[in-house]
Amino acid sequence: MATTHRPPTLEDVALAAGVSRATASRVLAGTGYASPAARERVNVAADRLGYAPNPAARALVQGTGFRLVVAVTGTAATVLDDPYVHRVLGACARVCAPHGLGVALHWLPTRSPGEVRRLAADRSVGGVVLINTTEGVLDAIPARLRGRVASIGIGSALVPAFDVDNGGGTEAVVRHLYATGRRRIAMVTGPRWLSCAGRSVGAYRRIVRDAALPERLVPGDFSADRGRAAAREVLERWPDTDAIVGSSDATALGVIDLLRGDGVQVPGDVAVTGFDDIPLAAMTTPALTTATHPVTQIATAAATAVLDRRPVPPATMFPSRLVRRVSG
Amino acid sequence: MATTHRPPTLEDVALAAGVSRATASRVLAGTGYASPAARERVNVAADRLGYAPNPAARALVQGTGFRLVVAVTGTAATVLDDPYVHRVLGACARVCAPHGLGVALHWLPTRSPGEVRRLAADRSVGGVVLINTTEGVLDAIPARLRGRVASIGIGSALVPAFDVDNGGGTEAVVRHLYATGRRRIAMVTGPRWLSCAGRSVGAYRRIVRDAALPERLVPGDFSADRGRAAAREVLERWPDTDAIVGSSDATALGVIDLLRGDGVQVPGDVAVTGFDDIPLAAMTTPALTTATHPVTQIATAAATAVLDRRPVPPATMFPSRLVRRVSG
DNA sequence: TTGTACGCGTTATCAA
DNA sequence: TTGATAACGCGTACAA
């Protein structure tokens, strides 16, 4: 009873089942031949002993890795401080837990897409989940990683995509503004290099064009500070604007802050919408009208695809759903 | 050039340095004897080859683990969805990265403190960072984990604590309210089982007693919903209250929401303060007066203590600093 | 269908 | 001070 409780090894299981380690391994890994009888005995023994394979040993022999790396593309390492990234990391961690794997966080500089090769060369890396990735990064991914990479955002022939229907979401938001009487709708865009942001801009342009509304675009970068600056720019260039579409909730909050500071009523004078539905979008005053995205679900799906190594469709789209609150 | 780029192993380094694997290991691990000459040659070779030890192999032979587990105590697994937890996870991940380790997320049920033993038994666990831990959990930690556990919150003889000076922070907040003329100050507490919340309550009681103010305590649980309910309770029991101290920012936002819904001016009629300074506390209207905490720094310190295995003081306190904004 | 034997990269033990 | 060598737990050719 006082003996140190060494976790059961494959050897223990094999011994208890009366077979060789090799047979036990084949049964548990589900690969190779094994008689039904042996199969049964091994499974029972493993269950009884509470056997769990040692990921370190497995990683060592297979060179398969024991870490799932969440790799974030961005211009600076500060992208790793983003709450959204942390949320994805958390979801991945929960998927990894039952496999005995850990997760890691890695910055992929926008300017040197080849950096991803270093990840691929690291034998301790079991898989990679890409965030905010670019085509440059996707192109640099070596074939060796095939089946062990997934992207939250755009994908490629090698990399399955798990993405939000940004275009659809933006469309829903803009249509909603139109439906509630707004006719001079401006948009604060996301960073130019991010293609998912491009889809939002595309949707916006399409709708205003079809409805013969003026196109009013101001560059942004998802930050609240830039939102403030953008709002000022909008006010100066087009004083009659009656709605501003933010490309992120932080952007929208920055916009609202500046507007109210200038005595502009929200949503009375100008409606403002966000994008993403961060936890506090519901708590602000006025509560933010925005589009909500199943971030945890998406991250879970991406991580699962990487860990299961089963064939997945090249692109899985997740809905972006309008959340009507007060601001717009 | 087309050869697959196998990462350098210890063997490669030893070969390049003209010594045996054993010597190279001793030099690189910093343990055991080695002549200055050999030391030099090995280090140079390792640098040139860009050698990094394979954590899987190391974990296998030492049984030391390749994952840092962030273990969160709470009544339900949903505590793992908390943005604060994710932030700690992110900080730990950044500390782990250079060591080639991954991080994992684990729920420790409040009701069964012994659960932590399962973590200790898992050989793949290199270390544990505790969040919101209880004395029950601390007591259940086996000695085997000594030096590989750190706690963000309370500690024990075995477990060094990395904590925010909650008492000091709450004191600063309440004193600030007093200094700005508030005399009937209520407090919405945190969950009872969390001892760090207890320190805040203690600080509050001490101050109101010393200043001969009425003590007005309402139980909370850090959530915005509970904040709303608590605010209603305060309004009913003590209608002349002129300040409400929230034990978290979410609580404060819930309080503000209900107050404004009832036509109570914030901070005109009632001042409201939060605690933690979450990213959006600065963006709400009115912007939240709160206490800010270096969460990332704290998590980094805790993770570093676990990974470095160097002796650390039993308790390291981090300051809680008042942030004066608009709400109080 | 099963078992033997080797290798994965590292650390630890021991003899030289 | 150094270098063989034996583990660590697992997967897998290869032989039986």
Automatic annotation (TrEMBL), chains A, B:
Molecular function terms, GO-annotated: DNA binding
Q: What CDD domains has UniProt attached to this entry?
A: HTH_LacI, PBP1_LacI_sugar_binding-like
Where in this chain does the record put each HTH lacI-type domain? Answer: 8-62
Q: Does the keyword DNA-binding apply?
A: yes
What are the alphabetically sorted keywords of the record? DNA-binding, Transcription, Transcription regulation
Which InterPro entries does the UniProt record give?
A: HTH_LacI (IPR000843), LacI/GalR-like_sensor (IPR046335), Lambda_DNA-bd_dom_sf (IPR010982), Peripla_BP_I (IPR028082)
Q: Name one Pfam family in it.
A: Peripla_BP_3
The answer to whether the entry has keyword Ion transport is no
Q: What is this protein called?
A: LacI family DNA-binding transcriptional regulator
